[in-house]
Amino acid sequence: MQLTLWSYEGPPHIGAMRVAASMDGVHLVLHAPQGDTYADLLFTMIERRGQRPPVSYTSFQARELGSDTAELVKNTIQETYDRFKPQVLLVGESCTAELIQDQPGPLAQGMGLPIPVLSLELPAYARKENWGANETFYQLIRGLLKSRVPAPGSERELRASGARPLANLLGPSALGFRCRDDVIEVTRLLDSIGVDVNVVAPLGASPADLLRIPEADFNVCLYPELADQACHWLERMFGQPTVRTVPIGIGATREFLAEVGRVAGLDVTHTQDPIWSRMPWYSRSVDSTYLTGKRVFIFGDATHAVAAARIASEELGFTIVGLGTYAREFARDVREAAKIHGVEPLITDDYLEVESRVAEAHPELVLGTQMERHIAKRLGIPCAVISAPVHIQDFPSRYAPQMGFEGANVIFDTWVHPLMMGLEEHLITMFREDFEFHDGATASHLGAGAGAGRPQESRSEPVETTDRADDSIMTWAPEAEQELKKIPFFVRGKARRNTERFAQERGILTITVETLYDAKAHFGR
């Protein structure tokens, strides 16, 4: 067993919590020990929700394991029904409770409650959070709609002449990445081409809404990690086609609209020009040409990682030096994207392996999760968050979608900002010794003498040393340190490492300016 400090995904019952917390009229009862009751923290603290999640626990203790914990399960389920009066009850167990094999689902189904009771089989030691959310959403839709599946050979009713097509948006959920705003943006996109949204699920949906899903002409699988299994089932049972293009980035948004047009039988040529997106102009403008060729490392869930790789390569002109995901169920998609971009795919849920690969690749920008934000901070590399798992600051109060044309604007600002700040700090450093801009200079707008007597601040970096195998110590000459500071800080770490490696291979113990330039020439070939 491997011990870890961080985890990209929780166990599958966390995924079940996310689906229950997304919906109205659905309650989840978890057979779990005292101490596993952390749903409130997840949703109220991280996502800043205004209400507690609809999750109840049996909360058994160690002393109860020798008695009949099955009776505890039934009492908790009855109390939950009496108190919350849910329309649908989900019953599952945490990873610890799975070991004692009380089977709470069948117990609940045998209690004769007057509502649908769905038993969740969530193998905690074989699967993880996204799979648990995907399975829970599928079981909900299948459990509520299986009695309404049309007979084999029957045809779907055609919509009335002149009526606007209807679409379901499937996949957005609680604790997802920018789901709230993505739904608004995609609804706006569909409305612009004459398509109405029938149901959004699970986010904000009720069991009654799920019963209306078959009324739509097609489904949009916005987040495959959560909705692909449900979309496949609806396609087989109800003949509803699925739009699978995820509209993240200008190119993907245009393809999404084209696919919706084909499925719904609409002419969408008038939407080819994204009149409310500034990203295409910005990415071609003189002000951003210095971004071309920047080395970027991408890691996240499969949907956002693949989309980010396409945007980085095709729309911003970055060079991709790493691409990976922690979502093993969607590893094939990431491998195919990595092949297109000419990099070795990284499929892992070990953050230490991710850190090692980032350090080896020497990127100038990292696009990842909150884990990569910490990794990039330690390595001194700019980072932008593109995927869950996320921190509280990635649930902004403002409107900040990732999808659609407005989402492309948000992505451009989010990704380019760290690099812009890098250039700004580099320019400040370059001109620090200038008679107008050095640290002791008087601010021009404050008048003569305003800065008199102000002590000059020293911002010199600590001299790093590298222990050699023979216990001798490599040092940097002061003039070499000064020369190193002229290199932009966002690539300075790479220059330092390359120079030290160059010196170590040649037995050089004191790095001079000449060594620095020799190393630059060596690695520039």
Automatic annotation (TrEMBL):
This is Light-independent protochlorophyllide reductase subunit B. The keyword Plastid does not apply. Residues 476-520 form the Light-independent protochlorophyllide reductase subunit B-like C-terminal domain. The keyword 4Fe-4S applies. Belongs to the ChlB/BchB/BchZ family. [4Fe-4S] cluster binds at residue 36. It catalyses: chlorophyllide a + oxidized 2[4Fe-4S]-[ferredoxin] + 2 ADP + 2 phosphate = protochlorophyllide a + reduced 2[4Fe-4S]-[ferredoxin] + 2 ATP + 2 H2O. Keywords: 4Fe-4S, ATP-binding, Bacteriochlorophyll biosynthesis, Chlorophyll biosynthesis, Iron, Iron-sulfur, Metal-binding, Nucleotide-binding, Oxidoreductase, Photosynthesis. GO terms for biological process: light-independent bacteriochlorophyll biosynthetic process; photosynthesis, dark reaction. Transmembrane segments: none annotated. One of its GO terms (molecular function) is ATP binding. It comes from the Bacteria. The active site is at residue 287. Binds 1 [4Fe-4S] cluster per heterodimer. The cluster is bound at the heterodimer interface by residues from both subunits. Component of the dark-operative protochlorophyllide reductase (DPOR) that uses Mg-ATP and reduced ferredoxin to reduce ring D of protochlorophyllide (Pchlide) to form chlorophyllide a (Chlide). This reaction is light-independent. The NB-protein (BchN-BchB) is the catalytic component of the complex. It is an enzyme of class 1 (oxidoreductase). Protochlorophyllide reductase is composed of three subunits; BchL, BchN and BchB. Forms a heterotetramer of two BchB and two BchN subunits. Its cofactor is [4Fe-4S] cluster. Residues 12-419 form the Nitrogenase/oxidoreductase component domain.
